[in-house]
UniProtKB/TrEMBL annotation:
InterPro entries: CbiX-like (IPR002762), Sirohydro_Cobaltochel/CbiX (IPR050963)
MF terms (GO), sorted A to Z: lyase activity; metal ion binding
Transmembrane segments: none
NCBIfam families linked: PRK02395.1-1, PRK02395.1-3
Keywords, in A-Z order: Cobalamin biosynthesis, Cobalt, Lyase, Metal-binding
Protein name stated in the entry: Sirohydrochlorin cobaltochelatase
One Gene Ontology biological process: cobalamin biosynthetic process
Cited Pfam families: CbiX
Amino acid sequence: MQALVIVAHGSHLNPDASTPTYDHADTIREAGVFDEVRTAFWKEEPSFREVLRTVESEEVYVVPLFISEGYFTEEVIPRELRLEGWDLEQWDSDGTSATHATLEAADVDKTIHYCGPVGTHDAMSDVIVRRAETVTGDSEAGEGFALAVVGHGTERNENSAKAVHLHADRIAETGRFDEVKALFMDEDPEIDDVTDFFETTDIVVVPLFIADGYHTQEDIPEDMGLTDDYRTGWETPAEVDGHRIWYAGAVGTEGLTADVVIERAADAGADVGDAIETVRHRTRSDANASAGD
């Protein structure tokens, strides 16, 4: 038997913070490749510390629904899961290249395949592109559009910016969009000046965040000039300084993120059958249906 455990931050204050986690878990359950699919949170129940006790399978794949490598993926989660022998060097990562480490979990007699975060997997670039397709309602969105991949940015964790640059660079290399840039909330280049960085009239803005919350639904829209007060909402697209801004909201709310979770587990040795193709097809259909509403 094999189990999948998706671990995420959650929130005591934002009831929507855990919604993407539950949604992706449901999608993966429907694919039917894991005997068990569980979720666990830092700020909600069930907790990281208790989740492995709810799993019957002896082989467990733990995938962090986090954007970047850092404090939670490197310290908090391994500690709370009681992963014996955990050492950051086992990931042999440059800050964006963590894959997986296989360890034993103390007191539950299970083999844990601890994976890198979804946010640094190459497949997350596809999710960002899908997000652009979803918000524009155009499955071919690219030519005639610029793309801004937005991260928080922080001096406390340089890996936060690395993840944003990783995907912006990968998408730029495909040549799909006229322009692609990485922008940030708390470091240069800042999202406040989004229209200064692009010549293209239509700009799709995709925040590299797992869930919608304070930053994606309040700070960023106001910073970009989409609205003077987030409580009144904004148009999509919104006219700002002679550009049309297509604001997509948090990338982690895109259904295709479930595919990245499965790919992380597959990279660690999970038998996922044709689940990756199934999820890609299903979420594509769902995205097309939403665009047509």
